[in-house]
Amino acid sequence: MNPYRAIVLSLRTLSRNRLRTCFMMLGMVVGIASLTALSSVGESTRQETMRRFKRMIGTFDTVIIRPGSGQTRGMPSLTTVPPTLKFEDARAIATEVPDVRRVAEVQNAFDVDVKYRDKTAAPAIFGVSANWTELRGDEMAQGSGISDDDVRSLGRVAVLGAEVKATLFADDDPVGKTLRIADVPFQIKGVLASRGAGPGGANLDNLVLIPVTTASRRLFNRDFLTMLVAQLKDPEQGDRAVARITSLLRDRHHLVPPASDDFTITNPRAAMARVTEVGSTLSKVLTGVAALATLIGGVVIMSLMLIAVSERRKEIGVRRSVGASRQDIVLQFLLEALTISALGGLIGIAIGVGGTSLATWWQQLPSALVWPAIGSAVFISVAVGLVFGLHPAWKASRVDPIAALRS
Fold this sequence. Notes:
single chain, alpha+beta, 13 helices
């Protein structure tokens, strides 16, 4: 049979039985729409998780060192961590660990009053080294950040987070003005661009940055740190870098087995991998459910086509009697199954893409269509039609034309 005629005949047959065709198509629509939507929404969620995680910790090419053996809960501050991490430790890591490019030093405290005229705020105060904003990936909305000269000279300068700027200055330009931190005057150098909320809901804009040396000697009078951020030369060698930093700090702190570490090292890349692994596992489970729905759609196609073979015995007998071969019958029924599954797949993809767009808009997620998954959905829909259409097509070709015409 001419392939064009076979396609026309298949479409004509399907259009005469619209209700049955819709039922056969429904399973494919649901399965393929689920596959498309779940893969795309899963990718959108992964990207948003990485964005928020990176916004909180800055970059993935760093490791974070905190004092204490992991027992501290919440954000570490000068009142909640033991004094085990020193400025000398930061310099030793920067100079003696070959995997480390540079180290940022941090002292931070909470519940410190910050005043400007008659307005008061209580943001987190971060004493930081000059490379802190660059390691964090922070951007300046106004003015400039903490410099090496500020750190060396114990400068009384401050950089405001967007929330602090809004609280104390509203729409005024704060750069060049003086505020008081714990009654110590600081001149404002700049304002950070807004970072919004972190993964835990913490406000990342409610902070003030000052030079770490100023915080240590003029404000807090503490010689220990609450955090070190070590930037790695090769992020892929994070485990090796962590091992070397651990060995160096244990040696510097005179810790011998079985003594536990008096510091905690966190590799954000490893933590991010664990977070995304959980999401990936859930995504795989949901994708498996969608694949099962697609297979059920294929079974529905096969079942209804088998019923159709019984109902169309006379049609098959007439076609055979006027010269149609068994191969022609197989081709006709296969084309019908392929048409149903392919059309159902295309409708499912359209619904899946639309559902993804709606879900990402509603949840304020980045739009991400996984084109390989969409291509796989097209292939799956065609493959399901071919596989589950074979048996009905074969059975239709085995119908005895004489017995069919007599029935």
